[in-house]
Amino acid sequence: VSVSYFTSLSRDEEFESSASSVVPLFSITYFLAITISVMSCMRLDCVRNKVWVASFGAFSAGLAVLSSFGLLLFCGMPFAMTVASAPFLILGIGVDDMFIMTSCWQKTKVKDQVEERLAETYKEAAVSITITTLTDVLAFYIGLMTPFRSVQSFCMYTGTAVLFCYVYNITFFGAFLALNGRREQGNRHWLTCMVVPEKKDNPDGNVCCVGGAYDMQTGTEREMPADVFFKKYYGPFLTNTWTKVFIIILYGGYLAASIYGCLQIQEGIELKNLAVDTSYVVKYYDNERKYFSEYGPNVMIVIKDEKFQYWNSSARKGLDSCLQTFENLSMTSKVVSWLPFYMAYGELSNLPLNNENEFKKNLPGFLKASGFSQDVNFTNNSILASRMFIQTVNISRAIDEKNMQSALRETAEKCSAVDLLVYHFSFIYFDQYAVIVSNTIQNVVAATLAMLVISLLLIPNPLCSLWVTFAIGSVIVGVAGFMAFWDVNLDSISMINLVICIGFSVDFSAHISYAFVSSNEPSANKKAINALYSLGYPMIQAAVSTIAGVVVLAASPSYIFRTFFKIMFLVILFGLVHGITFIPVFLSLFGFCGQVHSSIEHENGIKEHSSIKNQSAFAYSNSGFIPQKELQMNSYAPRLPRMYILSSKVKNTDIPDQSHIFSTSVPWENYDPDCP
């Protein structure tokens, strides 16, 4: 005989125990994240190798988890089961920032002092990771507005951990980056810290014994092959006119599929999914669906009026009228109540139960003999409360559960004869159906507006800030749509992940948009290529490391953690595609047409920058300048936006004729070739 069993406490107990199922996976995740970080930061040069940098970057993320969790637990913040997935997420975020900072460090001049290299690194990376940190933290803290305690707990722990992650990255990790820089400055081996000869001094030396090579032309570390790929192949390919047309068509298809998926999404969670796959609760629900699929929850109707006169015939008629209304609902059958059985018992025994004293006198004996003793709270000769049960039918989907709960509650409220309450222990889960959509929309809209404000404050171009906000909305629509295709319903679990979606979708778009705005290239296409060259590979590193941080959850026996993996995978995939494909194309088409940043570098190292609209001007000092042809500037002089004044250290006698300074320049009327 096969027996399936279930109690009113089973679901809660199994739900709480499912958190322990992912604890063994965290060590695997940490190992994967460190391995991927180390492999992506390895160099064949024994001095420029970044193995320790990658390791301490992952260690910094681990410290953030310990610090934030320890602080909140010390403060008494409840630890919900959903928080168990937060360390996987924080590990990915911390490693992301590490990749950005390492990439910026590699583009500094290796012969500069460590202080100067670190300052240049923070100059390029600090704003970018500050934007993403602020957006992530705000996205999580906005999630505190939801009425779901599990979501509030997750958002509080994760938001605080992201904040600690940022602090550790700009302090602890930055300090280690400086120490590693001093090792490189002394041309010391990455493992032994022994001084090794440079490659130019010992060209035939073993790769393990010589190092410190760098690009002689730029003075920076040699380019990674992936950076070269983005600069010479992928960037020019993406900015090709026909490629842009194809990308726009591809985006249209993505958007259409996403919107269709959003229209197909289902609300609610299967209650068996709150337990792990091997739980006895899952077996019970499977057998219940198999053999009793036509029946829904057995809902109790509680009379909570202490002054209700059960012995009064007119009062009973009013109660019977209300119960008849319950039975007339399309999703209910008969009401099972102790009261009709008691009155029938009184008639058979010739007891005058219409009398209050007789009613109360004979009630305890009847309840004990009939088995209804659990249905009546008879204390101090008073009936404080009693309950009846009504069987629901034809409940097969989450929407049926939502409609059933609403209909029963409305019927109870309309009963004027007695104060009624309907309850089932599953109602606590059904309650989310009434608010899940409105709360999800509220959180997404509030977080998106917050992202827009932060982008406007920190990205020095309003149009690019709007593109960041557009990317957030686009990724959210895509994730929500493809959730439906992957059999993920809209519930409190997926709502947590949609909040995460906002933070992660802004990461990729904000990085690439800020790099685009900050670029000094003369055309929109070149700005896009330069942005991809600077951040394309770090974004791929970040995406791979984040997915590695959650991929082990795909093997979890808990539906909750598998759902977390599914949505995180969609978020990272769509966020990365937007960051390295859609956003660069859109920015090159609509972002910065006609604006050029020119830079004038003098002999004494002083640089002046100006923004010249619809014009191209390049001024050089006389050092190393060889005029090739003469261009008369008199006719263009009135249109010069400003006068360039060379440093006082440059003697007037060293300055050639003005017509020669611009001898290689194009005419002033030439527009940006990438603009229509």
Helix vs. strand class: alpha+beta
The helix tally amounts to 19
Range of helix content: 55-70%
Mean pLDDT: 80
Q: List the helices and strands in order.
A: HHHHHHHHHEHEHHEEHEHHHHHEEH
Q: What is the strand content?
A: 5-15%
Oligomer: single chain
For the sheet with most strands, the description reads:
5 strands, antiparallel
Q: Using the CA coordinates, give the radius of gyration.
A: 35 Å
- Strand runs, count: 7
Please report the distance between the alpha carbons of the first and last residues: 78 Å
Low-confidence stretches: 593-676
Protein model, in words:
The chain has helices at 10-17, 23-41, 51-74, 86-106, 114-142, 149-185, 225-238, 241-264, 280-291, 313-327, 338-348, 356-370, 398-414, 427-458, 462-485, 492-518, 524-550, 559-590, 658-661; strands at 295-303, 332-336, 376-379, 382-393, 420-423, 595-601, 607-613. With 676 residues, it is of the alpha+beta class. Strands 1, 2, 3, 4 and 5 form a five-stranded antiparallel β-sheet that branches. Helix 13 (398-414) packs across helix 14 and helix 14 runs parallel beside helix 16 (492-518). Residues 593-676 have low confidence and may be disordered.
Keywords:
alpha+beta; single chain; 676 residues; five-stranded antiparallel beta sheet
Summarize the SSE layout with pairings.
Layout: H1 10-17, H2 23-41, H3 51-74, H4 86-106, H5 114-142, H6 149-185, H7 225-238, H8 241-264, H9 280-291, E1 295-303, H10 313-327, E2 332-336, H11 338-348, H12 356-370, E3 376-379, E4 382-393, H13 398-414, E5 420-423, H14 427-458, H15 462-485, H16 492-518, H17 524-550, H18 559-590, E6 595-601, E7 607-613, H19 658-661
Antiparallel strand pairs: 1-4, 1-5, 2-4, 3-4, 6-7
